[in-house]
Each structure stands twice: as structure tokens, then as C-alpha cells.
Design a protein that fits this description.
- The protein has 416 residues and is an alpha+beta fold.
- It has helices at residues 6-27, 33-41, 65-78, 101-109, 143-153, 226-240, 251-258, 260-274, 283-290, 307-312, 314-323, 351-363, 384-394, 396-399; strands spanning 45-47, 52-57, 62-63, 82-85, 90-93, 127-128, 168-170, 185-191, 197-203, 215-222, 324-326, 333-336, 348-350, 368-371, 374-377.
- The strands form 3 sheets. Strands 1-2-5-4-13 form a 5-stranded antiparallel beta sheet.
- Helix 6 packs across helix 8.
- It is globular, with a radius of gyration of 22 Å.
- The two termini are 22 Å apart.
Length: 416
């Protein structure tokens, strides 16, 4: 996963200091509610009926064990002992005290996490397939491209106050598990006749009160032009998107009003000024980011025959049939943990459960992915059974329904 350099770390630490002062001034009555609102939204903070809600970004759904343990500590120390996994690869805390928010953000910063641009009318968290990097049907690893987009969108001055919130998703596999058709921009990897990599580009998808399937406006965008083309789309939306009615302000309404063909023409008109400019990606830049997403040291294994274990543990056989997915490497498997037990809000995780998942991730040297309804990892197949039993023993009450199929991402919570 991407590791912050000194510059990245200084940015989030400075943002924490800035927001600490803004919060102090608001609590002291020096800032009005109207003045404080855009400041808190830029830092993922909602003021709701009974308590603030803080939304923490998890770029492309990837966490390490130390970060998961920090989330558990925050849930324990500042909330009611649980966190909530949203449908767009974020983590939410629903009961923190307003005066504690700067301290929470400071703790997140120590493990390279933040809540920047997780709310408000800006470019939100870039999401992807929950099995990115390990999927058996993967065409490309989408995570480096998500990271490139993340770095471009963070603190982008031109798109900080869009007509409405804006969400980008990138798929990397044959199956669209990233749900790119229901995002403001969806990107699908393709190769042309010469074998060159590019992206099919969808715009104007979304759910909510007006569900719309996105429209393709570019069948082959060379990867070098990716950021320039996103920039062009955002410029068109920022210029023509409605600001008089928030229910008509999403890009899906604009695309429908103009038609996808006219919208694409306006994007191409912007590209005349952007193509070949400073936003053009280079091989060196892609390699710089891709170096953070190398495969772990996989062992040379063969696929494991579960016949004996299935006979001995029927419950495990049912769990395995529903909660494991094919892995790109023989002898490994992607494991899902359902966060949809009976009688509990889908997506909730207690602090103890978070600690248990972090323990497993560290013990088995796994990469943890927190995405929507699931946490996925890729233990070796023959170690999947003890891993499942360990989790069940640690958090039996909430995970005893893990044999249920993980819920579809859009049937859990409003997408954020």
C-alpha cells in the first residue's frame, strides 16, 4: 500500500493543527455555525441530531493492521465502542464529542490516515474492487491508478466547491465489483489492438433518489491522458452543473440534460487546452506510485483439497462456500467476513472485533481490506480454517452469522 513521504505526512499534520484552531474558535463562539460548516465538512465532520459523525477515508479500501488497531482504539476511547464501515470504503464514528475531533484526527495522522474530503461538495474518496490486487480475474491492479487519482484530487483548489459531491470508481477486473456504472465517473481498463493500456470512461451514474446508469463517453482513453480527461470532465461539470437545487445538482442530471454526446463534445473542447500539458501522466510517475503496490512474497503452493476438512467441519464447509473467493495465486484464497449479522446495523464493527481482525492480519501476514460489507484477506488455503475459527471465537456473537452471503454493497447504507 502507499506509504506517506515526509511531504504527505506534514500536510495531514498541518491540517490537524489548522482544524484544532478552527474548532477551538467555534466552541468559543468566535466562528458562527455558518462559518464553521464548510471548515468541518472539509474535514469529514457532520453535525447530526444527537452527536457529530466523523467519516474517515480509507483510500481504495486498503488498511494495514496498525491502522485497524488505531480505529479500534478510537472507537473505544472516543466513541461507543464501535465503528461503522460505509458502502464507499470509509469508516464512520457516530458518537464522538465535538471537542475531541481534533485529538481523533491527530491520532489518525500518526498512522497515515485522515478525514479530508470525506464530506462536502468536493471530490470524495476514490474507490475500487474490494479484491484489488488479488482477484483471479484481474486485468490490471487498479490501486496505483486510484492512488494517482487520490493525489490529484486532494486539495484541488478548482474543485473544492463543486455543485455537488463527486465520486470516482476504478475497476480492474473482468467483473465490475467496483460498481463503476453508478458513480459520477467510472473507469474500466481496456487494451487496444496494439495491446496498449487505456480506459473506457463512464459519466453520470448514481443511485439515491434518481438512480441512473452511467453513459460511456470515451471508448479508449490512453492512460497518459487519464488525469487531463478527469480534469476536463470536472471543468465541464463545475461550469454547467446546477447550483440552485441540490436535488438537481449531481452530474447525472447534467449529462441527461445535455445528452451524453453533447457532454462528451464539451469535454473534448476542454481537452484541446489540457492535452499534452502538465497533467499528462508519464511512465516515471506511474512507476513511482506502482512501487508501493508490489506483491508479497507468495509461496509456491498447490490448491488445497478441502474434502477431509469439509467432512469434519460442516459449518466451515458452508462458510467456505460463501465467504471465500478465487485468488490469483494457487494455494491462496480471498476470505470475506460478513458485517451483516441478524439484529445489528449492517457494517458495524466493535472495538474488540477490530482488534481481532488486526491480530489475524498481523499473525498471518495478510493485507487487510476494509470495503463496504466485508474485510478481505488472502491467507493460504490450508490456514483458512483456523483463521475462521479464531475470528469466530473472539467475536462469536457478532460474527456467528458470517456464513451469510456478504450483502450487496448498495443494499447496506447510503453511499458516501
Amino acid at each position: 500500500m502507499y506509504v506517506y513521504d515526509e511531504y504527505d505526512q506534514r500536510i495531514i499534520e498541518d491540517r490537524v493543527k489548522q482544524f484544532r484552531d478552527q474548532t477551538r474558535r467555534y466552541l468559543a463562539g468566535e466562528l458562527s455555525e455558518e462559518e464553521f460548516r464548510p471548515l468541518r465538512l472539509q474535514n469529514g465532520l457532520y453535525i447530526q441530531r444527537f452527536a457529530p459523525m466523523l467519516r474517515v477515508a480509507v483510500p481504495y479500501g486498503q488498511l494495514n493492521a496498525t491502522q485497524v488497531r488505531t480505529l479500534a482504539k478510537i472507537a473505544r476511547d472516543y466513541d461507543k465502542g464501535y465503528a461503522h464501515i460505509s458502502t464507499r470504503q470509509n469508516v464512520q464514528f457516530n458518537w464522538p464529542a465535538l471537542e475531541d475531533i481534533p485529538d481523533i484526527l491527530a491520532e489518525l495522522a500518526t498512522v497515515q490516515m485522515h478525514a479530508i474530503q470525506t464530506s462536502g461538495n468536493c471530490l470524495r474518496n476514490t474507490t475500487t474492487d474490494q479484491f484489488a490486487g488479488v482477484a483471479a480475474d484481474e486485468i490490471i491492479d487498479p490501486r496505483p491508478w486510484c492512488e494517482i487519482v487520490r493525489q490529484w484530487t486532494t486539495f484541488h483548489p478548482e474543485f473544492a466547491y463543486l455543485p455537488r459531491k463527486f465520486k470516482i470508481a476504478i475497476n480492474g477486473s473482468q467483473e465490475d465489483r467496483a460498481a463503476i456504472e453508478v458513480h459520477d465517473i467510472g473507469l474500466e481498463p481496456v487494451r487496444n489492438a496494439a495491446g496498449e493500456l487505456g480506459f473506457r470512461v463512464l459519466v453520470g451514474g448514481g443511485l439515491g433518489r434518481t438512480p441512473v446508469v452511467g453513459s460511456f463517453i470515451n471508448e479508449f482513453l490512453p492512460w497518459q491522458d487519464l488525469i487531463s480527461y478527469l480534469d476536463a470532465i470536472l471543468r465541464v461539470y463545475n461550469r454547467y452543473g446546477r447550483r440552485d437545487n441540490k436535488y438537481k445538482a449531481r452530474i447525472k442530471i447534467l449529462v441527461k440534460a445535455l445528452t451524453p454526446e453533447v457532454f462528451a463534445e464539451k469535454v473534448e473542447a476542454e481537452m484541446v487546452h489540457l492535452r499534452g500539458g502538465s497533467t499528462t501522466l508519464t511512465e516515471a510517475e506511474v512507476q513511482r506510485v506502482s512501487r508501493h503496490f508490489v506483491d508479497p512474497d507468495y509461496l509456491a503452493l498447490e490448491n488445497f483439497d478441502y474434502a477431509n476438512q469439509d467432512a469434519e467441519y460442516p459449518g466451515f464447509a458452508r462458510w467456505r462456500s460463501r465467504n471465500t473467493r478465487a485468488h490469483k495465486r494457487p494455494g491462496y484464497v480471498a476470505v470475506t467476513l460478513s458485517l451483516k449479522p441478524t439484529g445489528v446495523a449492517p457494517g458495524d464493527l466493535t472495538d474488540k472485533q477490530l482488534d481481532a481482525v488486526a491480530d489475524l492480519a498481523r499473525a498471518l501476514q495478510l493485507r487487510l481490506l476494509a470495503h463496504l460489507a466485508r474485510a478481505e484477506h488472502h491467507p493460504r488455503r490450508r490456514r483458512a480454517a483456523p483463521a475462521a475459527r479464531a475470528l469466530a471465537g473472539t467475536a462469536r456473537r457478532r460474527l456467528r452469522h458470517a456464513e451469510h452471503r456478504p450483502a450487496d454493497r448498495h443494499h447496506l447504507l447510503p453511499g458516501r
